[in-house]
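Good morning,

Attaching, inline, the backbone tokens for the sequence recovery test we're adding to the shared suite. The designed sequence is right after.
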């Protein structure tokens, strides 16, 4: 049915978005990169060449679009390798990986065939680990990032002193939904809430289920104006009758000079003020030492 197809398309879209966000965060510590880096010196020796690399192509382009994923020696550009004679060692529909050696070099006879299955096994293993990582960092019901992934993001911001803004929201009457309509309907309210958050946030914003009926959106490099705009988009599009609940929100921003968890704590205090005043409203925490004030 049309309804099923639309729902399926939305699920695929939200899964791919979270997958891209997780990949971006994990890129600096990618297990596959680390493993390839460790394999390349021995690989060069077994091939009988001075240099080798694993190169990747993600867009189906020609040789000019191939980029070095890891190389030994590590400072060589893609042009230093004979990509045309590279050996496919695995990948998926979005990315193919090739084992290449230095331009003008010739591997020892039989060495390439011997190495190919080893790299194939490695690629399959890393793909499996990546899938497990994604499962560990996403919420099974809504498809949003989970609290564990959110904490990784916040820890990274603290280490780098990166500025960000955050919206922390809570469904005001969620207990009533569960008590009167049942937990299955409660789950649907949570799913509709997550869809509304995706619709209001940008591609690079990180929407997460913080716990229970509480949600969070982290805005990289954001400030109070940015998070106000996000909340305004969410509030304008929010249909309490369709979603099944009202919400309250706390907004805060950090300039990178305080721990990220402190910024989140200020957003949580502002959220508490909004709920204490009756709910269905937002409050803004103006700064680390300022009291929350009513959002415009």
């Amino acid at each position: 049915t049309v309804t099923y197809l639309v729902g399926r398309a939305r699920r695929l879209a939200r899964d791919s978005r979270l997958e891209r966000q997780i990949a971006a965060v994990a890129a600096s510590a990618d297990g596959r990169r680390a493993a390839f880096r460790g394999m390349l010196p021995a690989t060069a020796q077994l091939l009988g060449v001075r240099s080798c690399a694993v190169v990747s192509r993600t867009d189906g382009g020609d040789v000019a679009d191939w980029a070095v994923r890891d190389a030994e020696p590590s400072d060589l550009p893609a042009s230093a390798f004979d990509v045309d004679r590279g050996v496919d060692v695995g990948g998926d529909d979005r990315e193919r990986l090739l084992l290449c050696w230095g331009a003008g070099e010739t591997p020892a006879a039989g060495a390439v065939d011997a190495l190919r299955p080893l790299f194939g096994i490695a690629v399959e293993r890393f793909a499996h680990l990546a899938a497990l990582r994604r499962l560990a960092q996403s919420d099974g019901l809504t498809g949003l990032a989970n609290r564990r992934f959110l904490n990784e993001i916040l820890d990274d911001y603290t280490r780098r002193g990166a500025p960000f803004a955050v919206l922390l929201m809570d469904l005001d009457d969620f207990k009533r939904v569960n008590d009167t309509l049942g937990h299955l309907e409660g789950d649907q309210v949570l799913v509709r809430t997550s869809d509304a958050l995706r619709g209001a946030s940008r591609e690079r914003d990180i929407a997460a289920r913080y716990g229970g009926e509480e949600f969070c959106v982290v805005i990289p490099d954001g400030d109070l104006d940015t998070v106000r705009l996000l909340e305004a988009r969410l509030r304008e599009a929010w249909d309490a009758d369709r979603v099944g609940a009202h919400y309250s929100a706390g907004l805060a921003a950090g300039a990178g000079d305080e721990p990220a968890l402190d910024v989140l704590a200020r957003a949580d205090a502002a959220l508490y003020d909004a709920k204490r005043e009756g709910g269905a409203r937002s409050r803004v925490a103006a700064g680390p030492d300022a009291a929350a004030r009513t959002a415009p």
